[in-house]
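User: Please fill in residues for this 485-position structure.
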């Protein structure tokens, strides 16, 4: 069932596209092993495409088991010297990487948007600055490990195998590589098959920073590449960010081995609005919570829980704000919602939306003209959703919001916690005591108060239940990469 559409504003934005002529992507990218770009033993390549245009951006190598083995051997050899360097020396390399990321920020932001479909203002203002900040932050820890854990000796664990997702490619790379290197480990990293380009540009940054060969190795490829990493006997730790199903596969594969494991998986996070909240501010938080990066966010606030007494006026405000969102070219600085990452993900989103309609929820989509080419989906909100609906239970990973109501704080907690996930939550209220009570009772690794999607390298991030285990960021992010004696 559809709801009425609020009127659109009477003016439009002139296009403000970001230029792309100041850098050139390579036609074919090789694997980055032992400090050099080398051809894959598999002799296979795959195309990475721009989801906004469906044009091929570059060909990247597909690493097989032999390639992964070469990468692990290079990392193991480098570990013998990297782990023995003074922390202050490792810090200098990390500081240098952070500075180069900032110097190449414009190029990295554009490639991130072209390869992944996210709006340039998000890549420019969020992904790249926070990625640089993570290297800067962990550079500061590299020579302080003996003070970070009083009365305990901290030593690196060895070779870390790291597998990152397609929604925040460079940022997830920084979350994983920065603490691993600061602690004295070496790395074999696999980027997602649909968004490998900024990881390969990061390989160039490692060369530019004169990072010793083998400290960072990057193997591009498909699911079999990641499986070869997980099964490799000489990898000491696996760090994975991605889907819950793949996380369960990794747990089964590593069970009974000596491998250490951290998983950051899916979410179905609740954004909870009380009747005393500043409604306009809360609307902006809801918009940011679900439509940032087209909803391709593991901690997206995909469930709106709004107090029953204000549900109608709040949804009116939300729909009016959605009608002003601009969907289109990710490289246009005015764009709010870019392209869906892939055709497969677009089909998944469509199937979930159809299920919501079939199960009787009311759908609202603002009028917007979607481009003819590329993968696009309009911002969507469902109301009259019950907890039994698929759209309220399962992770959609797209710009789709499900709205439920509650009457009391206890009911809000019960509904928010009624999920197999436990990654994040948002609370919107003017009462500090209510914020503290809710935060204490919510089963979520991260709880934001009167804001959403605030990330900082000093703050730990991670979840409970099927959202995984382990923390990335902050002092807590050192633990997964250290042996403490």
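Assistant: Residues filled in for all 485 positions:
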């Amino acid at each position: 069932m559809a709801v009425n559409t609020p009127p659109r504003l009477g003016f439009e934005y002139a296009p403000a596209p970001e230029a792309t002529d100041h850098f050139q992507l390579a036609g074919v990218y090789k694997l980055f092993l032992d400090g050099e770009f080398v051809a894959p033993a598999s002799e296979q390549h795959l195309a990475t495409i721009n989801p906004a245009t469906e044009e091929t951006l570059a060909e990247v190598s597909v690493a097989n088991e032999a390639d992964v083995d070469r990468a692990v051997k290079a990392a193991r050899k480098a570990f013998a010297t990297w782990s023995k360097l003074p922390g202050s020396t490792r810090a200098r390399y990390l500081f240098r990487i952070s500075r180069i990321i900032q110097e190449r920020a414009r190029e990295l932001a554009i490639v991130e948007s072209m390869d992944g479909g996210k709006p340039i203002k998000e890549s420019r203002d969020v992904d790249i600055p926070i990625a640089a900040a993570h290297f800067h932050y962990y550079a500061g820890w590299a020579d302080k490990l003996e003070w970070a854990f009083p009365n305990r000796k901290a030593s690196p664990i060895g070779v870390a195998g790291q597998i990152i997702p397609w929604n925040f490619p460079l940022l997830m790379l920084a979350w994983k590589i920065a603490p691993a290197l600061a602690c004295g480990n070496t790395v074999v990293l696999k980027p997602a098959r649909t968004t490998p380009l900024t990881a390969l540009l990061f390989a160039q940054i490692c060369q530019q920073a004169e990072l010793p060969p083998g400290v960072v190795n990057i193997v591009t490829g498909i699911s079999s590449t990641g499986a070869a990493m997980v099964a490799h006997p000489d990898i000491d730790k696996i760090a994975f960010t991605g889907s819950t199903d793949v996380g369960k596969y990794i747990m089964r594969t590593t069970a009974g081995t000596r491998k250490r494991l951290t998983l950051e998986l899916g979410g179905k996070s609740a954004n909870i609005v009380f009747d005393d909240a500043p409604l306009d501010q809360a609307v902006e938080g809801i918009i940011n919570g679900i439509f940032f990066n087209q909803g391709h966010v593991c901690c997206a606030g995909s469930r709106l829980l709004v107090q029953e007494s204000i549900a109608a006026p709040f949804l009116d405000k939300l729909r009016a704000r959605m009608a002003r969102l601009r969907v289109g070219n990710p490289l246009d600085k005015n764009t709010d919602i870019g392209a869906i990452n892939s055709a497969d993900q677009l089909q998944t989103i469509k199937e979930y939306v159809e299920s919501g309609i079939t199960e009787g929820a009311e759908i609202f989509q603002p009028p917007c003209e979607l481009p003819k080419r590329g993968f696009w989906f309009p911002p969507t909100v469902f109301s009259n959703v019950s907890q039994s609906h698929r759209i309220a239970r399962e992770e959609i990973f797209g710009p789709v919001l499900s709205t439920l109501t509650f009457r009391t704080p206890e009911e809000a907690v019960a509904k928010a916690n009624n999920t197999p996930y436990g990654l994040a939550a948002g609370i919107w209220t003017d009462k500090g005591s209510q914020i503290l009570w809710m935060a204490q009772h919510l089963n979520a690794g991260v709880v934001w108060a009167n804001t959403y999607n605030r990330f900082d390298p000093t703050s730990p991030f991670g979840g409970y239940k099927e959202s995984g285990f382990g923390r990335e960021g902050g002092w807590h992010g050192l633990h997964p990469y250290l042996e403490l004696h």
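For context: DSSP finds 15 helices and 22 strands in the chain.
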